[in-house]
Amino acid sequence: MVWTSRICFRKYGNFVDNVRLYVRGGTGGMGLPRLGGHGGDGGDVWVVAKKDTRLKQIKDKHPDKRFIAGVGSNSSIQSLRGAKGEDIEVFAPTGISVTSDHGKMLGELNREGDKLLVAKGGRGGSPQSGFLPNKGQTRNIRLDLKLIADLGLVGFPNAGKSSLLTALSHAKPNIANYAFTTLKPEIGKVMYDDHKQVSVADLPGLIEGAHMNKGMGHKFLKHVERTKQLMFVVDVCGFQLASNTPFRSAFETVLLLSKELELYKEGLLSKPAILVINKMDLPEAQSHFQELEAHLENKEESIHLFAEDVIPKSLMHFTHIVPVSAMTGLGLPLLKSLIRQSLEEQDTIDTEAQRNQKILELRREIPPSSIPSWGVPQPT
Length: 380
Ligand SMILES: Nc1nc2c(ncn2[C@@H]2O[C@H](COP(=O)(O)OP(=O)(O)OP(=O)(O)O)[C@@H](O)[C@H]2O)c(=O)[nH]1
Ligand SMILES: [Mg+2]
Prior knowledge:
Elements: H1 2-11, E1 18-24, E2 45-49, H2 55-61, E3 66-68, E4 88-92, E5 96-100, E6 105-109, E7 115-119, E8 138-145, E9 151-154, H3 161-168, E10 186-191, E11 197-202, H4 218-226, E12 229-235, H5 250-264, E13 273-278, H6 285-297, H7 299-302, E14 318-323, H8 332-365
Parallel strand pairs: 1-3, 2-4, 9-11, 9-12, 12-13, 13-14
Antiparallel strand pairs: 1-8, 2-7, 5-6, 5-8, 10-11
Bound molecules: guanosine-5'-triphosphate and magnesium ion (MG).
């Protein structure tokens, strides 16, 4: 159990990937009934995406996590139209989603400079309001950081995800022979000879029950949502978290990983995925690999050989299955080229889908009589 206390201690270490804030727009200024003057509107609160910013900085700089914009100026003889209250900008990293405390999505900030209004200031007093000002909008909001990478590494602890990232890129994640070595997501860049780069997110290992927040749970599964594709990394010899938990073969691991993703969010299984079978340098690797291959070739029949609790509702489809050794480099050049191929194929499919969508939209705008009968995709 020593490791349990170590995890608990480090789990809530330095990495902050969500923060809750109280935001309030400024109150408007008083109108001036005698001269029909308008009070200034209260200031607004915005969340603004800024490069090299961390959520932790918000917590550190504003421990009370309250952001209240300025009050609008009252209308006066010198200034009949009162000035607007000061706006507040809360700087956040790119790749943020903002939700209200009821879980309603307010917006996403994906590019540097993206801005989202989270609390509007109250209107200043005017003849319509009897010269009385309104209060600003009040909200509790939550900012969630989601990594954006081309590929997300998904696997049980100790499968060799970080070792693989190190072997494929210049990233230097921690590697060690115990579960939960990786405690926060890290992005590495895989470089190609023609300078093309693919970003790969190394994520903490998942365990059974991750969808119910076991282990790192939701905290990291949400990062998987944003990657274009997934790369399942499986130890060819199987996995056992602790002596009192069941041993899982490589095939069971594949099923269980699919199941965790499915239980977290069903749509995740429709992402293109590559299956990497790691540790092929180990002495028993070949026989385990053959066994796994046989199960994968006959997935539908094979799953019935296993206990119900490991079987997902639908089976993940893998674009490629690649045996490798992150340690000796076996299979890595092939994996590297398949990663690129797979992403390029997806781009082509996406572009084609967008093109077809565009044609359909245009078609809707054109009167039916002027559309030729050829070359226009039919809605499915
Ligand atoms: N024999 C062998 N060992 C490997 C290979 N790849 C990784 N390992 C070892 O497996 C252990 C776990 O490797 P990591 O890369 O830390 O595994 P991980 O999947 O990132 O683990 P977590 O971060 O805990 O989820 C380390 O002792 C590695 O040296 C491999 O291809 N062959
Ligand atoms: Mg790791």
